[in-house]
Write a structure and sequence with these properties.
This protein is α+β, with helices and mostly antiparallel strands. The chain contains five helices and 13 strands.
Length: 234
């Protein structure tokens, strides 16, 4: 086989993989996350903020476990997940633990100890670059994101029905690398943000299903697509 033919086959393979949005969490490297950037400038950019496809509060996608410990201290929990074909790690930090409504940060690491997803849960006081933070009502988020609506897909997770809440929903911007997770607040009768995910840009495996390519593909079938900015409790 000539070098030209081999190159054409390789390019076709890459093109198909990208068009399918595939993302192999088992083999991800810093290069995959585009870490040929100014890390120092990005870290400063994320302090006190959530930046799509980049990181949150000084922790960047593509870094390692030690970098998060340096920023937030020892984790509250640290769990390894192992499957027949791969493994990954999740760790949790508590932000503002002495306050009544503290925030949580869940960080997922690949088998290579590289950060591939950051989840900010609850009221961490961290805001996205658009100004959105935990517990914001859906109407406020919808109005804030209206100019970005073309890139946002809406889904409901039907795999688990939470008592009094129903199913959680997601407004996901795959191209930018950010997702807003909503839950129904039965006290004030409103949909509100209960988690924000940051993940690599253009990666269909995220968010919340980091193991989709790692032994948990069956979970994805429970995610049903909705209309633009739609929310559903069933």
């Amino acid at each position: 086989m000539s070098k030209l033919v081999s190159m054409i086959i390789f390019l076709l393979y890459v093109g198909v993989s990208l068009s399918c949005g595939s993302f192999n969490y088992k083999n991800i490297t810093k290069k995959d996350l585009g870490k040929l950037r100014d890390t120092k400038a990005e870290r400063i950019e994320t302090i006190g903020k959530i930046v799509p496809g980049v990181g949150a509060d000084g922790v960047l996608l593509g870094e390692n476990f030690e970098s998060v410990v340096k920023r937030f201290g020892a984790p509250f929990s640290d769990v390894n997940h192992e499957f027949a074909d791969c493994k990954y790690r999740t760790a949790k930090w508590i932000l503002r633990p002495k306050e009544k409504r503290s925030g949580l940060v869940f960080v997922t690491f690949s088998n290579e100890n590289i950060i591939i997803e950051i989840q900010i849960q609850g009221d961490s006081k961290l805001r996205t670059v658009e100004g959105i933070r935990g517990y914001y009502p859906s109407n406020t988020v919808r109005e804030t994101l209206k100019d970005l609506s073309d890139g946002i897909d809406s889904y409901v997770d039907t795999g688990q029905d939470y008592p009094g809440v129903g199913f959680v929903n997601h407004w996901i911007d795959f191209s930018r690398g950010i997702s807003y997770q909503f839950a129904w607040n039965r006290v004030i009768k409103v949909w509100e943000v209960n988690a924000i995910y940051v993940f690599p840009k253009n990666q269909k495996g995220s968010p919340g299903y980091i193991g989709r390519d790692c032994g948990q593909i069956e979970l994805w079938k429970y995610r049903r697509k909705l209309g633009k900015f739609e929310l559903s409790r069933n």
